[in-house]
Amino acid sequence: MITLKTKCGNVKGIENQNGYQFLGLPYAKAGRFEYAKMTENWEGTFDASHNGPCCPQTRTYYEHLENPARYFYYREFRDGIKFTYDEDCLNCNIFTPKEPGKYPVIIYFHGGSFNSGSNSEEPFDGQGFAKRGIVTVFVNYRVGLFGYMSHQEIQKKYGRNGNFGFDDQYTAIKWVKENISDYYGDPENITLMGQSAGAIAIQYLCLSKKCQGLFKNAVMMSGGGKFPDFSLPRKAEDTQNYWLEFMQACGCPDFDEFKKIDCQKIFDVMEEFKKNHKDNMFNTMPVIDGYLLDSPVKEAIKNPLKINYMLGYTNSDMYAPLLAYVNHKYVKKNSGYLYYFDINLKGDKMKAFHSADLRFMFNRLKESWRPFDEKDQEIADLMQDYLANFARNGNPNGKNLEGKELPLWKKTGRKAIHLKLRKENQKQNSQIKMTSPHYFRLFWNFITQLNLI
Q1: 8 Å CB contact between 379 and 400
Q2: Element at 328 (helix H, strand E)
Q3: CA separation (Å) from 452 to 23, 111, 283, 372, 387?
Q4: Which of 15-29, 64-78, 110-124, 129-143 has the lowest mean pLDDT?
Q5: What pTM did the predictor assign?
Q6: Which residues are known catalytic residues?
Q7: SS3 content of the chain, % helix, strand, coil (to 5)
Q8: Is 447 helix (H, G, I), strand (E, B) or coil?
């Protein structure tokens, strides 16, 4: 165990093999449909030896294993882990190196289609980065209805509407910037990182004027770039009718009364409500609120923050062709680094599925049920070395943990660094090189995934 004296008060954490971890730290507080207020202090010594609760979501109350796709991800990232759920869920997990210092910081936002997810799912462990001299912060934020409901009473009270989950992420960044030096982190060298919905949220944060100066780098895994217009954030007022209809379905048209309705009843009604409303996803995501997002994404994306960018996609993502196209376009315009994860994971027929790169990026192969081998481990080490360099300098190139030069990763919109397993008769990393995307193959993999899930 270790106890640190911080601005918020004393905090007791856990020692691990490569450093220390502080779990469930409350970075903010917020009531239902209220914007978060940053934590300034807590009483006594905070016990950071266990994970904090994540936001209530469908799996809180409903058996999610019946859906084969959800079972797949359950086995991949959640099997054997005990999760707790509570609306008081604005907490983070911090992993640090053992020696006090001023280390680069990575803030990670989990995915889950803006409707689910947790910062304590299996891959989200920062020990590998601590070994490389990086502090990592994994953030819980509000999702689904609790994260993205809009209503005229919210607008009337705050002068903005919706985006509670998006604002949680913004608040977490500000809290980290103010407090991370107590956990050996450098507040002037912060990298945002996220996958899927987490990456999409980072893309939108990179379009917000309020984020100017808060972070230096951004890593977007399977979620960066500009997606088709129909899937982009709507104006907050354009989502209100959906939520008014949902309140009616709950038998609770009064907003103040709805703020007090039982949490389980919300999900009971939502399960039926979604059957007749196929646009649920488009109403539970960031909106144009005039505060964090003050203009349409298709306009704002023409002038993102002038920071360092890294984007990536996998070869068998359900949206692989689209992701490849928008990723290449974005890095070309914004002088970023791009990777193409082309490793078919062992153990089933899912290949390099959406999220397949997570275990590699966080170097959590040994904790998986899959029969990974030394060639997989080489790629995991390589990816973590690249990302550690990027967090440190805004450039993934340089040396690995053992002091050897990494394969050159160039900035180019046309090509990406191709992450692929070496063949038996080839030297380590000889397969790693800059290549152009093979769109026909990506499209074929996309069709194949539709048949598997």
Answers
A1: no
A2: helix 320-334
A3: 36, 21, 28, 21, 31
A4: 64-78
A5: 0.96
A6: 196
A7: 35, 20, 45
A8: helix
